Amino acid sequence: MSKKLVAYFSCGGDTGAAAKQLAKAADADLFAIKPAVPYTDADLDWRDKNSRSSVEMRTLARPEIADRVDNMDEYDVVFVGFPIWWYLAPTIINAFLASYDFSGKTVVPFATSGGSDMRKAEAVLKPLCSPQTVWKDGKLIDGNATADDLRDWVKELNIL
Fold this sequence. Notes:
The protein has five helices and six strands. It has 160 residues and is of the alpha/beta class.
């Protein structure tokens, strides 16, 4: 049986709720990806072209992460969750993926979104992992996803 981790970034709570539900469904540990400098409401104002999140997404700047997964080598499967921003993952996810060697591990992205799909996000994220990483196609998880839905998805991934 593989050891699994659900690592996620959440600002508004939707992705965090999905991550907690997924961790239960997958029998996985949980890790919150947080920036070293927390985001304020003004930082997250997507209508302001000069807000921190807008600048990070435009320049692809990778914010520093507050904590590391010290025992990453123990995990075989890592689910990586995030909200979709401008059709992409927030750049803190880029920083997270680039900061570990996922060789020999399975990485499974998941996201929450108000209507965007994950294709562009996955196209940017997958190359951040080593060629020896097993990358599984991601899933959008909405607020209506049940524990049974998530268990079924995990079974379909064939990673247990």
